[in-house]
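fyi for ur records
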Amino acid sequence: MKEPTVSVCITTHQRLEQLKNALYFVKNQTYPIKEIKIYASGYKEGELDDLGVEVSYEQDWKDWGHHKRAKAFKELTGDYIWTVCDDDQYPFTFLERMFVNHNGEDIIYCNFGTKTRPHYWVKSMLHRGYIGNGNILVSKKIASITPYVGMSHSGDWTFIEDCLKNKATSRYVDEGLYFHN
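which gave:
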């Protein structure tokens, strides 16, 4: 099986220093990345153009970045889409670890930590509250037949649930590889 390509969507709203940190974690991955695109609201047109990646300046929908991710799943062209928020942190081996034992699954997900649960990793499951946008990779194949329509706080879960209804296959990586601030 060929090595899958990865496109990265980074969503941000008026947090330039955090965005730069997230971009640092993405750009320093040990696994090659096909494309990186920032979907930004709350910035002046052109304000982020010196970051060295493509930027799409968006309206602020006040929806936790769901409209931005919905657009990214339509636009990005890698075999897998990795959605990152501006306050996310990853080891440089995140993608490499996610693709260990890769067998063409539609959804690959791992454990995560948060600032509200700083002392342990949350064991991810494909259930609401046990998964978020930052600890999953979604294949372009399943994303192309699954509209991203949930714009409430649980919109990421709604998208994953809809992918599963569309017969998405999945694989769990039993490692803590993502920290959401």
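Residues 107 and 170 are 5 Å apart (CA to CA). thats all i got for now
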